[in-house]
Design brief:
This protein has twelve helices and two strands, in the order αββααααααααααα. With about 280 residues, it is an all-alpha fold. The chain has two domains: about 40 residues, no CATH class; about 230 residues, Up-down Bundle (Rhomboid-like fold). β1 and β2 form a beta hairpin.
Length: about 280
C-alpha cells in the first residue's frame, strides 16, 4: 500500500486516483496527469473541476458582503424584496460597477471586469448565483474548467463593453458572464448534434428566451449586457472548442490563468482604490 501511495496521485482534472507514470488518464484522457506543473497546488485548487463553480460563487458572495460593509450606514433595508440589503450606489461605484458614469467620468476601464462580481441586492445575487450553479457544471463538463473560466470572464467583459458603447450609465452583476456560459452551451449543443446535443440545445434555447423575455418585461434589466455576453459565449465556444473535439491544452490553461490573475488583480485594486477614496 505504501508503494502504491508513493506512485499514485489524484488526476488534476477529474480527481481520480491514477499512476504518476500514466501517459494519459484512463478516466478523463488528460495527457501526463503526473506532470509536476499540472499538479501545482494553486492551479489544482482554483481550477479543479469540482471546485471552480463554487470558487466563482464564493468570490461573488465575498464582494457582495464587502459592498455592504464598506458603507454599512447606507444599506437599503426596504420591505421591497427587490431592494432589500442593497449596497449604496457610491459603494458599488467605488468597488467597480461599470457604465458610462465610472468609465467616461473616472476612466475606470478595469470596471468592465470588476462589475461581474458586484450585485445590487440580495435577490440580484441569489438569482445570478442560482443560474451559475445550474449552467456552470455543464460548461465545466463539456469545455473543461480553464475554458469555462475564460468564457465566463471574457463574456462578462464583452457584455459590459457593449453596454458601455450603447450608453448604459451604471450596471453590474454576473448575468452577462452567465449568459456567456449559456451561449457557449448553446453552441456546443448545436455543434455536437445527436440526441444529447439536441437535448442540450433545446433546454438552453428555452433559457435564452426566458432571459430576454424577463429582461423586456422587467424594468432595469440590462439586455445589452446579456446580449453581448451571450454572443461572446457563442464565439468563445467556437474558437476554444469543447472536450469531445480536443482536451484542454497548455494554451487553454494559460488563457484561464491570465483571466484568473487579471480578475484577482482587478478586485484587489478595486478594494484598494475604494479604501484610498474613503480615507482621503
Amino acid at each position: 500500500m505504501e508503494g502504491q501511495s508513493r506512485n499514485s496521485l489524484l488526476c488534476p482534472k477529474c480527481a481520480r486516483l491514477v499512476s504518476i507514470d500514466e501517459e494519459r488518464c484512463p478516466y478523463c484522457g488528460l495527457a501526463h496527469p503526473g506532470s509536476r506543473w499540472k499538479n501545482i497546488s494553486f492551479g489544482r485548487g482554483l481550477f479543479a473541476s469540482n471546485r471552480i463553480v463554487t470558487n466563482i460563487i464564493a468570490l461573488n458572495v465575498g464582494m457582495f458582503l464587502l459592498s455592504i460593509l464598506i458603507r454599512p450606514g447606507s444599506i437599503a433595508l426596504s420591505a421591497n424584496p427587490l431592494h432589500f440589503l442593497s449596497p449604496s450606489s457610491q459603494s458599488l461605484i467605488l468597488l467597480g460597477a461599470t457604465g458610462t458614469i465610472p468609465i467616461a467620468r473616472f476612466h475606470m476601464w478595469w470596471s468592465l471586469l470588476s462589475a461581474n462580481y458586484l450585485h445590487g441586492g440580495i435577490l440580484h445575487i441569489f438569482f445570478n448565483m442560482m443560474a451559475l450553479w445550474q449552467i456552470g457544471p455543464l460548461v465545466v463538463q463539456e469545455f473543461g474548467a480553464y475554458r469555462m473560466f475564460s468564457i465566463y470572464t471574457l463574456s462578462g467583459i464583452a457584455g459590459f463593453l457593449l453596454s458601455y458603447l450603447v450608453g448604459v450609465p451604471l450596471t453590474l452583476g454576473a448575468s452577462a458572464a452567465v449568459c456567456g456560459l449559456i451561449g457557449a452551451t448553446l453552441y456546443f449543443g448545436k455543434s455536437r448534434g445527436g440526441q444529447y446535443g439536441q437535448m442540450v440545445y433545446q433546454q438552453v434555447i428555452g433559457w435564452v428566451i426566458a432571459i430576454f423575455a424577463f429582461g423586456f418585461l422587467v424594468p432595469g434589466i440590462n439586455n445589452w449586457a446579456h446580449g453581448g455576453g451571450l454572443a461572446c459565449g457563442v464565439l468563445a465556444g467556437y474558437l476554444l472548442g469543447y472536450q469531445e473535439r480536443r482536451g484542454e491544452n497548455l494554451y487553454d490553461k494559460l488563457l484561464g490563468a491570465i483571466c484568473a490573475a487579471a480578475t484577482l488583480a482587478v478586485l484587489f485594486w478595486s478594494l484598494l482604490w475604494s479604501f484610498l477614496v474613503l480615507t482621503h
